[in-house]
Each structure stands twice: as C-alpha cells, then as structure tokens.
From TrEMBL:
UniProt KW Transferase keyword: yes
Annotated organism of origin: Actinomadura vinacea
Residues annotated as transmembrane: none
Pfam families the record matches: Thiolase_C, Thiolase_N
Record lineage: Bacteria, Bacillati, Actinomycetota, Actinomycetes, Streptosporangiales
Protein's name according to its UniProt entry: Thiolase family protein
C-alpha cells in the first residue's frame, strides 16, 4: 500500500530522436513539445484542467526556446490557460530535474498532478546560443575546460583507450537498433522512429574518425552523444489522486539526489551521485535491475562502470545518447521514459538513472515499477 502522497508515474512518452537538420528540424520547439503534451494527456484521458503545474527542462532558453517554452507549448496545444508552467535549466539533467521537482511537489502536498518533461531543438537553437560573453568566475574558479576536453581527461584518468570507447559506442547503436521503442514514441507528423541510430556501425568504422577535441586524443564524433532534436514528458500524481481517478500507477519515484563534483573533470558527478542516492534509498546496488547513464561521451558510463561492481548488461541496455541523441533539455525525461518501459517489458523492479551535467553536477533518480 503506497502512502497517499507517494509520487507515482502514470504515463511517459517521447518524440522520435531527430538528427541535427534532420526530420524534426522544421518543427518549432514549441510545436514539438505541444504535440508531446497532447499525446501524453490523450493516452490517459486525464482532464488537462486538473493539472497543477507543468515543469519543463530546456537548456538554450533563447530565440524560439525563450518565453517559457512549456507555457507556450501548453497554450499552443489549446489546453486550459489557467494551468501554469515553468522552465528550468540544470544543463543536461534539466528534464530529470523537472521530474524531481514534480515528484517533490507531489510528495510535499503542493501538487496533486504535475507534468514534467523537456524539449530541445538543437537544429533551430544551436548549442551555446545562451553562452555568456564574459568570464563571470574570477580568480576562485580557474582551469575550466570544454566538455570535450573533460571527456578526454576522464578517459585518461580511468585509462580508457580508443578501442574501449569505440567498442562501447558501437554497442550503443546495436542495442538501440534492437530495442522495442514503439510504446514510448509518439509520432511527430510522419516521423515515428528514431533517425539517429546507425545499426551497421562497427568499432572498426568508428576507429577511422579523427579526434574531435584534441590531437592526439580519444574522443570523436562517433563516441560522443549526437546533437539532436526531441521532447519528452511524464505525468506524475499522488498515489491518492491516482486511485481517485481510477488510473493505474506504473512506477513510483522512490528516491532522488543531486550532487556536484570536480568542475574541471565535469563529467564525473554521476559517481558520487550514485553513492549518495544508494545511501538515501537504503537499497544496495545489486537491487538495481536497470541503469541509465547518459552517454554524453563513452568515457562517462565506462568510468562509472569502473567504479561499481555491477553487471555491464544492466547499464544502458537499450543504447543511449551515442545512438539516440542528446537533445539537452529533453534527455533526462527521455531516459526516464525509456527506463520505465524497459522495466515493464522485462518484469523488473528498480531502475537507477544518473546524468552528468555541465559545471560538474549530476542528478540521480531511482524509480520502482509497480
């Protein structure tokens, strides 16, 4: 029996992953998210007027993604104007943080029903559009590097060679190509499948790519996440409200955590975030059935795997951002959507999601399938 205020996930959907300047590039990010929200609500038959808040992650909040895209999308979808929305930015973890805030609002009694998600059209609003023009840090923060160089530093620290990175990246494409994504994807126009997956990719082909950030170096376009377009959204509510509406809860948000780490290495915070959420949840690592670690670069999940005694087959078993793309603000909700469906498809119980974020941060979430 769940506590009345336990935050449960009732539905989760995502768009197909669109390549940069690909099939979704002509879709305005507001329209991309509006179609996602409409599909989310249609799957449950929920009266949209009963939603308390809409929390949307978006990283490049400029141009077409300014003016609170969650609010604009809600209105563009013709949904009740009394329902508010807000936009948050925790870099790559923005969509996951949206889930955290929605779950925490439900648990606190501030919300009965909330929608969490994210959107990013990297074709239309290029990465870096919201970058600062001047160094704001002063003398207390020095030696910061780009994420690509940070990925090289992580590979160096954990002694990950080019072969390991490329083999992992080919694995991502092969697993994604074999994954049953149909239930979680909502079509956008005629686009109903991911266009980022390259099923014929091999480590040997990836080996021919030149280093992208430093030479000599190990990080290439092939073992990095793909720049892409997409949106995702989840419907959360209290267990009591779910029962009142005669809806079926699919999972509960069991535990959440956030953590910072070395801002120069930048991509390592999933490691301490995992330790923190395991302590907070009271669960041992061997209780976790499925792990999603955002594949910002292949060195990120491989470094995590080097630190934890877990079956590698549990980690990103349906591929990750190397194959499926990384639409920045949407990725956290996309990973959660994929993890929920995978837990259901395989009759598993606990899923752990961790994401590295710019500035040396990470979100961690454990969900329990019901």
């Amino acid at each position: 029996m769940l506590p009345a205020q336990a935050p449960v996930i009732v539905e989760a959907v995502r768009t197909p992953s669109g390549r940069r300047r690909g099939a979704l590039a002509d879709v305005h990010p507001v329209d991309l998210l509006a179609q996602t929200l409409t599909a989310l609500l249609a799957r449950t038959g929920l009266d949209p007027a009963t939603v308390d808040d809409v929390i949307i992650g978006c990283v490049s909040q400029v141009g077409e993604q300014s003016a609170t895209p969650g609010r604009m999308a809600w209105l563009a979808a013709g949904l009740p104007p009394h329902v508010p929305a807000t936009t948050i930015d925790r870099k790559c973890g923005s969509g996951q943080q949206a889930v955290h805030f929605a779950a925490q609002g439900v648990q606190a009694g501030a919300y009965d029903i909330a929608i969490a998600g994210g959107v990013e059209s990297m074709s239309r609003v290029p990465m870096g559009s919201a970058r600062m023009d001047a160094d704001p840090f002063g003398p207390n923060v020095t030696g910061l590097v780009s994420q690509g160089i940070a990925a090289e530093l992580v590979a160096e620290k954990w002694k990950l060679d080019r072969t390991a990175l490329d083999e992992y990246s080919a694995r991502s494409h092969h697993l994604a190509a074999a994954a049953p994504f149909d239930r979680e994807i909502i079509p956008i126009g005629t686009v109903d499948r991911d266009e980022t997956i390259r099923p014929n990719t091999t480590a040997e082909k990836l080996r021919t790519l030149k280093p992208a950030f430093q030479n000599p170096g190990h990080i290439t376009a092939g073992n990095s996440s793909q720049i892409s377009d997409g949106a995702s959204a989840l419907l959360l509510m209290s267990a009591a409200k779910c029962a009142e509406l005669n809806l079926t809860p699919r999972a509960r948000v069991h535990s959440t955590a956030v953590c910072g780490d070395d801002p120069r290495l930048m991509l390592t915070a999933p490691i301490p975030a995992t330790h923190r959420i395991l302590r907070r949840s009271g669960l041992p690592l061997d209780a976790i059935d499925h792990v999603e670690i955002n594949e910002a670069f292949a060195s990120v999940p491989l470094a995590w795997l080097a630190e934890f005694d877990i079956d590698p087959a549990k980690v990103n078993p349906r591929g990750g951002a190397i194959a499926l793309g990384h639409p920045l603000g949407a990725s956290g909700a996309r990973l959660m959507t994929t993890m929920l469906h995978a837990l259901e498809d395989n009759d598993l119980r606990y899923g752990l999601q961790v994401m590295c974020e710019a500035g040396g941060m990470a979100n961690a979430t454990i969900i329990e399938r019901l």
